[in-house]
Design goal:
The chain has one helix at 134-143, and strands spanning 9-11, 32-34, 55-57, 78-80, 101-103, 124-126, 148-150. The protein is mostly beta strands. The longest helix is centred in the last third of the chain and has 10 residues, at 134-143. The protein starts with 8 loop residues before the first strand and ends in a 9-residue tail after the last strand. The model has no long low-confidence stretch (mean pLDDT 94).
């Protein structure tokens, strides 16, 4: 049996999980955790205890609210949340200070918090699959001039 402190990456991709096994909490040294393509509706609190986690992929799950634990994780660099059901990214995202890449492709977002402008290492946000107005897109291109913002062509459906 492997020592949990020697494991740096775990994938639970495509296992149709509705909950994460509590044993996962033992792997404190994780750098990469792939939970994509499951049926998770929430993420357990212990996820915030992974102090060195740099990449978290919870794309294509059933998250109806943004996993607030992420706000306590200041080592995350790649955050993949695409194809989930949450509509709001909370202001506390600003505390995930190391984020470089944020993927919210095809999430039904109503807006984006201004606190994203506090993320000084942010290099790219993928917002394809979300319909935003030309005004909204232009305002964000100005707010984050050093960040690559990937939008679908604008529409007149959301401000």
């Amino acid at each position: 049996q492997a020592n949990p402190d020697t494991i740096y990456g775990i994938s639970f991709a495509k296992l149709k999980l509705e909950h994460l096994p509590p044993e996962l909490s033992r792997f404190k040294k994780l750098k990469t955790l792939n939970l994509e393509k499951n049926k998770l509706t929430e993420i357990p609190d212990f996820i915030a205890d992974f102090e060195g986690l740099e990449e978290l992929n919870v794309g294509k799950n059933k998250l109806e609210t943004f996993p607030i634990q992420i706000c306590r994780m200041n080592s995350i660099k790649r955050l993949i949340l695409n194809r989930n059901a949450f509509e709001i990214i909370p202001d506390c995202i600003q505390y995930s200070t190391q984020i470089r890449y944020l993927d919210v492709y095809d999430c039904p977002l109503k807006s984006i918090p201004n606190t994203l402008t506090e993320l000084k290492y942010l290099e790219e946000i993928d917002m394809t699959g979300i319909r935003f107005s030309p005004t909204f897109q232009e305002s964000w291109l100005k707010k984050l001039p050093n960040t690559k913002l990937v939008f679908d062509p604008p529409c007149d459906c959301m401000d």
